[in-house]
Write a structure and sequence with these properties.
Radius of gyration: 18 Å
Shape: globular
CATH superfamily of the largest domain: Thiamin diphosphate (ThDP)-binding fold, Pyr/PP domains
Order of helices and strands: EHEHHEHEHHEHEHEEEEHEEHEHEHH
Oligomer: single chain
CATH class of the largest domain: Alpha Beta
Number of domains: 2
Distance between the termini: 26 Å
CATH architecture of the largest domain: 3-Layer(aba) Sandwich
CATH topology of the largest domain: Rossmann fold
Number of strands: 14
Strand content: 15-25%
């Protein structure tokens, strides 16, 4: 992990879109008047005739994307997660998932790491909402390399996809040679004291905690669950059998997100206690992203404390 090299996954998304646009002329991008923040402006500047700014009309944007997909286009729709998964939920459910249309919903500014935008804009329920929808694939990438791979890879899936992206710049974890597969987690280390399942921005925090614990001769493993749905049942069960403690950590509500998904697998296949770290049934707060990770106890220090308990 390169701690010095930090890139926000929303930036990675914008760059990957522009590259994908060169390879596939059927890719069309829609945005709800937030292209400078979602970074779809990179695509817009390169392919102005394949970019649609629908204005502040997120529900309408989903309907337009659904229609475009029926003509063979691959629409990538972007806005903040709170507007994509929240305001346009009904349109995603009924107009996209029910007819199983080929629409890619790439939602930025998810979680408390939105920071100073505050509780109203800190979407903490989107993974829960999206993974309950039939036909929907749900992805929460953890770094620049993974995000760029995801954005191209999902263009090959002829079905709805939800991608959760962050505002906060986080360390680059993977190099260009890393292999990814939707539905498969990525294990870092073989420690037996604990397994830390993490997703999105919390993967780098879990890896920092792993390094700190190693200094204390406590060996844990970290598993990057970037594919929330489908989820890697095999690696979850394997780690539960091989380690003494199971911890999940996410910049999302502990209700319905990664923690719930892991618990669902283990309750059916290998019942064991799971410690869920995340936002505990409350709204977010306004503040700096790093301070909020600390406040809600989902930073590396909090993970270390949880392992040591």
């Amino acid at each position: 992990m390169n701690i010095e090299n930090k890139i926000a996954t929303r930036q990675s998304y914008g760059e990957a879109l522009a590259e994908l646009g060169e390879k596939n002329e059927n890719v069309i991008v829609l945005d709800a008047d937030l292209s400078s923040a979602t970074k779809t402006n990179i695509f817009a500047n390169k392919f102005p005739n394949r970019f649609i700014n629908v204005g502040i009309a997120e529900q309408n944007m989903m309907g337009i994307a659904a229609g475009l997909s029926t003509y063979g286009k691959i629409p990538y729709v972007s806005t903040f997660a709170v507007f994509a998964a929240g305001r346009a939920y009904d349109q995603i459910r009924t107009s996209i998932c029910y007819p199983n249309l080929n629409v890619k919903i790439c939602a930025t500014h998810a979680g408390v790491t939105v920071g100073e935008d505050g509780a109203t804009h800190q979407m903490l329920e989107d993974l829960s909402l999206m993974r309950t929808l039939p036909n929907m694939t749900v992805i929460s990438p953890s770094d620049d390399t993974q995000t760029k791979w995801v954005i191209e890879e999902i263009s090959k899936i002829k079905a709805p996809v939800y991608v959760r992206l962050a505002r906060l710049a986080t360390p680059v974890i993977y190099d260009a040679n890393q292999k990814f597969e939707i539905g498969k987690g990525i294990q870092h280390g073989n420690g037996t004291e604990a397994t830390i399942f993490a997703t999105g921005v919390t993967v780098s925090e879990a890896l920092k905690a792993q390094e700190e614990l190693q200094k204390q001769n406590i060996n844990v493993r970290v598993v990057d669950i970037f594919s929330i749905k489908p989820i890697d049942k095999e690696i979850i069960i394997k780690c539960a059998k091989e380690t003494k403690k199971i911890i999940t950590v996410e910049d999302h509500s502990i209700i319905g997100g990664l923690g719930s998904a892991v618990c669902e697998v283990l309750s059916e296949e290998y019942p064991i206690k799971v410690e869920r770290m995340g936002i505990k049934d409350t709204f977010g707060k306004s503040g700096k992203a790093d301070e909020l990770l600390k406040y809600f106890k989902i930073d590396s220090n909090a993970i270390v404390e949880k392992v040591l308990q």
